[in-house]
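[worker-b] picked up task from shared queue
[worker-b] task type: protein-ligand structure
[worker-b] ligand name resolved to zinc ion; SMILES cross-checked against name lookup, match
[worker-b] sequence length check passed
[worker-b] input payload:
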Amino acid sequence: MTDPVVLPEFESFGDQTFKGLDNPEVATAATQALLNEERNSGQPVIDSPGENRLTLERGICRGGVWYREAEVRELTGADEEAIAAAGSNSAKVFETLLLRGVQTVGDEPMSQGLASELLIGDREYLVMAIRRATFGNDLEFEELPCPHCEELVDLTVPLDAIPFTRLDDPEQNEYFVPLRRGAVAFVRLPTGEDQAAILAIKGDNVARQDSEILRRCVLRIRHTDGTEVKNPPAVQLGMADRKAILRFLTETQPGPRYADFSFTHETCGKEVPLPISLAVLFRGM
Ligand SMILES: [Zn+2]
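[worker-b] inference finished, payload out:
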């Protein structure tokens, strides 16, 4: 048996891209609890046909028709090697998972171009489906320390217990966000391509990353007098307006909210935040 691949803590899930991980020490504890867990005995996961299919929130549009059905597959040893070769770069690990684990979206085979076209939330939902196909539906935690009462908790988390945001109208690809002084911003939701552009900005400069996402996703601004500014420079937006738009983009993005998972500890009755990282999802690798 080969040594397990140690995956990096994953900080580029969509809802964390813009606001950072609030609770890094909790994430570390969660990963540790998984590492303590006895590894699976290598029993194959047997899925009934259809379990590797899922319906995306947005999907892709071809010739005016939306395609949302996608199919994933169980990862193999060859995939594991490819993922290990992606090293400690979490964005690269994520991309490798997607490109290898997703078979089709609509009738199209997975490709780099297709992956970059998908909404961040659809990409994250696909990764959840790959996880399910490979290791099953339950995340098992053992001896997770409760931050309130310090008791060690054993916990089973089904993937569908992770909060999930849906789109009201999957085909709506332009939204409006009210700004100060009666202005309105027309925006679109960020995709894999946008996410890659943000992650390419070096030096962890959050303000510059925010500017980049605004530059890409704000289509136009309409002022109260009816004038419209197309592709407004993000640096000219007021701070309150920038925040309002970023909050909207984060809250409206569909898909799993890995960072928002929490559970109630029965012994002490308190809520325990347990952000789910990529390392937690794919701990068997
Ligand atoms: Zn407790």
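[worker-b] attaching auto-annotations
[worker-b] The two ends are 11 Å apart (CA to CA).
[worker-b] releasing lock
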